[in-house]
Design goal:
Strand order of the largest sheet: 1-9-8-2-5-3-4
Order of helices and strands: HHHHHEHEHEHEHEEEHEEH
Shape: globular
Number of helices: 11
Helix content: 40-55%
Strand content: 15-25%
Largest sheet: 7 strands, mixed
Number of strands: 9
Radius of gyration: 19 Å
Length: about 290
């Protein structure tokens, strides 16, 4: 059913011009926001807890703009099936200073860790590495329960190259690459919700928040530099990316410091443009354990 009906439809949507894609996104937004009300209670509660200083009209405005961005992300992600590299680079711009930052490590055959959040179009942000650089990237993902859709997303994310690895297999893959003296950029999205007992806990957007410590553990284990990728939505269909070096020597930092650093950068990314983060995620479903 997926290959016969769904897959051809997705490819057809992908070849549509952007103006028509955004017309579909507008319709989808009306359906998701006004008819289905998809996770609207979660979104509003997350926004109110994160921005207690904002009035209710301000919260409602951010909420609506979030849903529109969310729908845009869906259709923009499908566009990755057919978009050219030249068109992508016009719409997803990595600034020159960031390119030089990456290239300096690539020139020394140095593996690095790139971390970002679910801001703007995170799928575009993750794929930008394959478009801007010839350097290998090891992208980390969580396998989806639907095998057909999982295979589809793997093909989409790897269209411009890249080594896409399930989280459970990442450590083994990195050891193999290190033994073979093959450098890579490890791509991580670090704002999902980890088990509360094993997480790093901090204050994030005015709330006690568990943070995946995988970025920190990998950085300290291999002593790989850590770079944060900031995403800004310039206008509809156009994104600006910039990279910041968090540390070039992870083992020299105290435990928890790397997690704190990328969390603070993500928080600033969100505060700069609150409408572009993934507010529908149940980010604060866990309470801080008494011993943490």
């Amino acid at each position: 059913m997926f290959k016969i009906l769904v897959l051809p439809l997705l490819y057809f949507i992908s070849i549509l011009p952007f103006w028509l894609l955004y017309s579909l996104s507008n319709f989808f937004y009306l359906l998701v926001f006004y008819v289905l009300g998809y996770r609207k209670t979660v979104v509003l509660q997350n926004l109110r807890n994160s921005f207690p200083e904002k009035s209710d009209p301000e919260i409602q405005k951010i909420c609506k703009q979030f849903y529109l961005n969310f729908c845009d992300v869906i259709f923009e992600t499908l566009k990755l099936l057919t978009i050219s590299k030249s068109e992508f680079k016009k719409r997803c711009v990595l600034d020159e200073a960031s390119i030089q930052l990456f290239e300096a490590y690539f020139a020394n055959n140095q593996s690095i860790i790139g971390v970002m959040g679910h801001c703007g179009n995170w799928e575009w942000g993750a794929i930008a590495h394959q478009v801007y650089f010839k350097r290998m990237i090891t992208g980390v993902y969580h396998p989806l329960s639907n095998k057909d859709f999982d295979a589809f997303m793997l093909k989409l994310r790897g269209r411009f190259g890249g080594d896409i690895v399930a989280m459970q297999a990442l450590y083994k893959r990195l050891l193999t690459l290190k033994q073979q003296n093959i450098s890579t950029t490890i791509g991580l999205i670090a704002d999902q919700t980890p088990p509360p007992e094993s997480a790093y806990w901090t204050r994030f957007l005015n709330q006690d928040t568990p943070v995946f410590n995988g970025t920190e553990k990998l950085a300290r284990k291999f002593n790989y530099p850590v770079v944060f990728l900031n995403v800004k939505k310039a206008k509809r269909g156009y994104y600006q990316l910039s990279a910041s070096l968090l540390t070039s020597d992870p083992k020299s930092l105290a435990e928890g410091q790397i997690s704190e650093l990328h969390t603070r950068h993500l928080e600033q990314n969100i505060r700069d443009q609150p409408t572009i983060w993934l507010w529908s995620h149940r980010r604060w479903k866990h309470k801080r354990p008494d011993n943490l």
